[in-house]
Amino acid sequence: MKKKWMSMLLVGAMVVSLAGCGGNGGNDTPADASPSTTPAASGAPESQAPSESTGADVSGKTVVFIPKLTGNAFFESANNGAQEYSKGWGFTVDYQGSPNAAVADQVNVINSAIVSGADAICVSSVDATGLDAALTEAKEAGLTVVTWDSDVSDTARTLMVSQGTPDLLGKMLVDMGVDSLTNRGKDPKADTIKYCWHYSQATVADQNSWQVAGEAYIKENFPNWENVAPDNYYSEQDAEKAVSIGASILEAHPDIDLIICNDSTALPGQCKAAQNKGLTQSDVTITGFASPMSIKDYCDAGVIEQWGLWDCGVQGAMGCYLAAYLAAGNEVHVGDKINIPEIGEVEVMPNDCLVEGAATADVNNGVVLLPERTVFNKDNMNDYNF
Q1: Of 216, 251, 217, 221, whose CA–CA distance to 233 is shortest?
Q2: Which of 68, 280, 298, 337 has the smallest count of CB within 10 Å of its CB?
Q3: Rg value, the chain, Cα
Q4: Helices (DSSP H) in the chain: which residue ranges?
Q5: What SS3 state is found at 312?
Q6: Please, what are the domains in the chain?
Q7: Which residues are paired to 196 by β-bridges?
Q8: What pLDDT, on a 0 to 100 scale, did the predictor assign at position 349?
């Protein structure tokens, strides 16, 4: 199955269609939250024009697909998407993980992939640097390494498939809270809003970068707000701990206005803690990132008004495809356009679109962004099956 490079299109033109999902019904985030805000530096260097060569065939490759943890709705949905798409692409996605979100567990899977004869690894890391040594060994053993959802050091992988820049996602998290606060009669611009962040842990690169960007956005636009826990609350992607940490937040801060959960385990746990205490969206605003299926019951119960995410099935599929694509011997450079069959065209961007000041290698290194995110509420949550 041959693929051709496509050129001269914008990243935002990519069409996303996950098998089995309902239409988005126009509920995607506004245009000002699209990847079009990416810095102009994403263009190809003058010395390297975007490639238009025909890519080598990905069929027959094996990609070990590693989540942060198994049993979580976000990662299981990502695997469902990767499995569905890979059938048409003709390569194998081997989903391997642990129910524990731990560096040691992911290292064990990486080491197993090396000895198994796999062609590539596509991993969502539980730690920003904790997998670097193991992934470097995998690269030295001849495996292609791609990350998705949560990154490692850019020298330890080739491409990163990201859900968006920190500024984009940090702003989205805060704006969902602002909208819900306004709907319950608060004035986010004038009132002293007491808030905190609840997510997995500070060493998870993506979630931490969203929190940092969100804090900067709050300080600039809502100077009256008060962070009641500047060190944040962490529940280590443990479902039971997410509930207990959520309960401790509500106990320690009974007058808290807003809790932002930028983690797909923390958000349902925080909702459950509020429900256990008999609180609703009229008492405290809870928002964050999680799959619609994992939160819809809390929305139906009036615990939460709105939350967000992106199509994790497409993201997982994209990560696995790009891993197989590079494992097949294809080379990419910043500014190149890659046509992913059944999904659309993506552009390779520099690493500094995610991490300020980050360098990008000349070949097979950079970032690919998803083109859109979605805000869920009771009006559209049943349109999705992940």
Answers
A1: 251
A2: 280
A3: 20
A4: 73-89, 103-116, 132-140, 166-183, 205-221, 239-252, 266-276, 292-300, 312-327
A5: helix
A6: 3-164+311-372 (3.40.50.2300), 166-309 (3.40.50.2300)
A7: 259
A8: 97
- Nearest Cα neighbor of 76 from 312, 359, 340, 290 is 312
Which letter, b or e, does each residue of 166-185 get, where b requires 16 or more Cβ atoms within 10 Å of its Cβ?
bbbbbbbbbbbbbbbbeeee
CB 63 within 8 Å of CB 118: yes
* Model pLDDT, residue 385: 84
**Dmax of the chain from CA atoms?**
62
56: pLDDT confidence band, cut at 50, 70 and 90? confident
Does 42 have pLDDT greater than 50?
A: no
The tokens 């069409």 sit on which residue?
A: 15
Q: What is the DSSP string of 328-380?
A: TT----TT-EEEETTTEEEE-B-GGGTSTT----SSS-EEEE-S--EEE-TTT
pLDDT in the model for residue 37: 29
Confidence bin at 30 (pLDDT 50/70/90): very low
| Residue among 144, 8, 130 nearest 63 (CA) | 144
Residue 22 has pLDDT above 50, yes or no: no
The three-point CA angle 337-350-107 to 5° equals 100
Interatomic CA distance for residues 289 and 277, integer angstroms: 22
- Is the pLDDT reported for residue 214 higher than 60? yes
Q: State pTM to two decimals.
A: 0.78
Strands 344-347 and 258-261: unpaired
The strand order across the sheet containing 120-123 reads: 92-95, 62-66, 120-123, 144-148, 159-162, 366-369
Task: Return the number of other C-beta atoms located less than 10 Å from residue 114's C-beta.
Answer: 20
| Cα distances (Å, whole numbers) of residue 92 to 84, 178, 282, 323, 358 | 11, 43, 47, 11, 32
Q: How confident is the model over 343-379, as pLDDT tens digits?
A: 999 999 999 999 999 999 999 999 999 978 999 999 9
